[in-house]
Amino acid sequence: MIGDMKESVKQHSTPDLTSSINTWILDTTIVTLASLFTRFYKLCEPDIVCWDETHFGKFASYYIRSENYFDVHPPLGKMMLGASGVITGYNGSFSFEEPGQEYEDTKFCGIRGFCALLGALVPIMLYITLRLQVSRFSALIAACLLICDTGLITLTQFILLESPLFFFLACTLISYQLTRQCEQYTVPWYGCLAFCGVSVGCILSVKYIGVFTVLFIGLLVLQDLWTSWSTGNTTLRDFCVLFLHLAAFLIALPIVLYVSFFVLHFRYTINSSSSDSTYSPEYQASLHGSKMREERNSPHLMIGNTVRWRHGELLLHSHHLTYPDIDLNQVTGYSHMDENNRWIVEGCLQQEGAVTMVTVGDMVQLRHETTDRYLTVMNSAEGISNSVDYRVVTTEDPSIDSCFQLSHPLLTHRRIPILQSDIQLVSISNRCALKMNEEQLPEYAAKQIEVSCSRSYVRKGTGFTLIQNRSPREEENNQAVQPAGFFSKLAEMQVKMVETNNALVPSEKERNSRPWMWPINYEGLFFGISEKHGAVYFLGNPIVFWFNLAMILLLLSTNLHQSYHTLRYQHPPPYNPSTLASANIYLGAYLLHYIPFFMMGRVLYFHHFYSSFLFNCLISGVVCEIHLGGRPRWITWTIMGLVVGSFLMFSPLAYGIPVDEEKQTYGYVKSLKWLETWAF
């Protein structure tokens, strides 16, 4: 769609560009005041932790306390939340344990106020972006849609990453629009291009969903480069100079910023915390106060050593709990380091003349230190999620089923050093490799991760890393774990963020919103329920959503009409090609931010749609310009009146629906339940 554009927005001329400065000031002031009021109204209500505030408020606190943590999102947005907390007097001591927790005397309103401010700037910047392309009233319709959507207000009033994400998205759009309107190689052009590069780097550093915005800008740049080259008026030298300028500002600068934000992240998360076990021993050794930083290990694996085996974030674990169908102790995967992760290496069946040094290919058995029982493979698949695997337990007496050969895909007869990875524990009797599954066990195993023995050695989950190797002879424990450097930590974080994000698949009982539901405003989500301030229900303004959907359908029919008219007749087309091109550019951005979610297997929520929603409002503004540009103004005022009226009706969803003593909603809002899927 985008590649078919024949004219850039820079070439579009509108009467508004010559309108009086007083009209611009008046309209922008009205939009600004309305946006600020709707975002700051009842900002501190409810005074409880709402929805994902439990995550992002906690992450902001980690920065204030300079403690290490892990999250699937890049650090910029959370650092901004932490900085706003420091500025407004929050000391980082609140626990953010769960939704519904009362803030009490915690100074949380400052962080919410920062989010509300960024959220209020979004309609203002998008209004200005659109005003540069269409008439006054068409831009005001788009601004009205953005200001009066209850869902957008909810997302930008709480301690979430959506406010900085949407803010940098708006910055990216307005900066590139201004870049197109400036003469190349002038000071304003360089300034706008740098602004765009900074915005691209920032949006990618808040959430990885920002990559869709980056891709959209990249497509616009390619379109402009192609337009410049295809005219035939540009020499190869001039084309290369322009390309290098764009690459420096829109590729190199964002990459430098992205890496720089991780420099700051590592600087302000230097202390050890409960999240350390997520990272490699080398990463942990770089943290102040980490046990891994101070601990000394035996350089190589030996008989009698006490070890910990780890796969990914999970440690090989056992405890006193037994399986419900058999009175044998469980073997599980557990992410936290405790005494139940420790195993003592012994020779297989304590054979005579067993070597002290263990090499790849040797046979050993592992005795669990806490329970004094041996890691054993049962010749049975009963109770295992995968019917081709064997069950793993611990038994009181060793047997041939508790003998394991230490294997490695590349190494043979080599000593096994501390931190050696990809070690497979292969059962001698059953010829299977110990495997960390992705299945979570039920309550009887404290919801820990299932461990089985896989008959396929190459299957994912069979490689373990020796992360601790303690000799009973203290003088042999002289090997320190070398702290990871910056680029090692950076690479490790990128891999873990991607892997963890892909692993966020919905469970059978978990609510999982589907992309087809989003444009029609099919269902919402309770953000928080407070007896004092009511319930906040995250749902879009239905009039805004359905009007936006109608405008997309109208745009598609307009394209068909334009194409038919162009092919059938020779005289000028019925619609301004440049204005229609602007609408199609935003349609391309909408689809680019929306369609990929249909191909994602991870758990999804309604808020994932809202980047597309912003472009949908811009589409509506341009489509109104196409079809209402010459119409009587009362039509425009009627549309805005309906939008504002619907906002007044549905505003309690964002600001607090009354609830009774049993936290059940009541009042006139119940009559607004137009769809059965709305749960308020």
Provide a compact summary of the structure.
The chain is of the alpha+beta class. The protein contains 18 helices and 16 strands.
Written description of the protein model:
The protein is α+β, with helices and mostly antiparallel strands and 680 residues long. Helices cover 43% and strands 13% of the residues. The strands form three sheets. Strands 2, 3, 4, 5, 6, 7, 8, 9, 10, 11, 12 and 13 form a twelve-stranded antiparallel β-sheet that branches. A two-stranded antiparallel ribbon has the order 1-14. Strand 15 and strand 16 form a beta hairpin. Helix 7 packs antiparallel against helix 8. The longest helix is centred in the middle third of the chain and has 32 residues, at 236-267. The chain starts with 20 loop residues before the first helix and ends in a 25-residue tail after the last helix.
Keywords, please?
elongated, 680 residues, 12-stranded antiparallel β-sheet, alpha+beta, 13% strand, 18 helices
Percent of residues in β-strands:
5-15%
The tally of beta strands, per DSSP, is 16
Low-pLDDT sequence parts: 1-18
Shape: elongated
Helical element count?
A: 18
Question: Kindly, what is the distance between the CA atoms of the first and last residues, rounded to a whole number of angstroms?
Answer: 39 Å
- Helical proportion, percent range: 40-55%
Cα-atom radius of gyration:
30 Å
Oligomer: single chain
The class by helix and strand makeup works out as: alpha+beta
Tell me, rounded to a whole number, the average pLDDT.
Answer: 91
The main pleated sheet reads as: 12 strands, antiparallel
